[in-house]
C-alpha cells in the first residue's frame, strides 16, 4: 500500500495563522505569538515586527476554502512522503487558543491535518486530474489515496510535526499546503469524529517558488507560476476578516544553497475552539475543481459537478 514512511533527513473572530521559517525547529520562536523583539532566522511577519515591545500578539488570517481535494480517514503519522520525489520539508504547526491569550491548545485530542500535491501538481485520490501544462505522468510512488496526506496529534505544547516534501503547483494556483485543526475526536490509526475548528492554507512566497521551480524534479513541470497576488485563495482572503499576508510562508533551508538537504517551516495557528468550520476528522471533497482539473471517477464532488475556479 505504500504507507511505510520513507527514510530521509530529520531536520533537527476568526482563526489565525502566523508564519515563520527557522534554521532549526528546536530553536525557532513561535512566529505571531511571541514577545516582540525575539530574534530568529527565517521569515519575518507582521506578528514579530508590529507589536509594542513586550506585548504578546497573534496575527489573524482568514478562514479559507478546503478546496476540492480533501479526503477523510487519513493515517495518523509524521512522515507522509511515501517515496514522493522532492526537497524534504519538516513542518512544525503549533496550535494556540486565540481567545485565551494564545496559550497552546492541547488536550481534548487536538490534531492537525495537512494535505498537498506532489512535485508535479498531482493529489493522491485525484491522480487522473491534470495539473496543467507539460508535466510528467504521476510517478506511481505512494498509495494512490494517501500520499502527502496525514494527521498528527498536538503535543502538550500544541505542536504537531510533519515530514513531507516541498509541494509543486498546478493551474491556476500558487504552491500551497492545506490544513485543518480538529478537536475532541478519537485518535487511533486514523482520526475520527470531533470538530474542525480551523480550515486554512499556507501559500508559498513568489521568490521561494521561483527558486524551487528551477531545480529537479520541479523543473520538469513546464507550467508558468501563479504569483501570490493573483492566487484565487489569496484574493478570497482579502474579502473576509483577517490578514491575508499572514498566509504567505517562506521555508528556511537547512543548508544554505543546498535545497536537496531540505527546508524547515514553523507555523502558529491561532484558533477559537468554540467556533467550528465544519465536521471533524471526516468530511467530503469540496465543491468544484480548478479549470482543467476534473477529478477521476469515484472522487467527484458530492453534487457531481466540477465548476471551475475552486482551489
Outline the structure in words.
By secondary structure, the protein is mostly beta strands. It contains three helices and 14 strands. Strands 1, 2, 3, 6, 12 and 13 form a six-stranded mixed beta sheet that branches. Strands 4, 5, 7, 10, 11 and 14 form a six-stranded mixed beta sheet that branches. Strand 2 and strand 3 (103-104) form a beta hairpin.
Distinctive features:
6% helix; 311 residues; mainly beta; disordered N terminus; 14 strands; 6-stranded mixed sheet
Question: Which descriptor suits the 3D outline?
Answer: globular
Number of helices: 3
Low-confidence segments: 1-57, 281-310
- Which whole number gives the mean pLDDT? 75
Helix/strand-derived category reads: mainly beta
Order of helices and strands: EHEEEEEEEEEHHEEEE
Helix content: under 10%
Q: Strand tally, please?
A: 14
End-to-end Cα distance, whole Å, is 28 Å
The main β sheet shows up as:
6 strands, mixed
Strand content: 15-25%
Q: Please tell me how large the radius of gyration is.
A: 18 Å
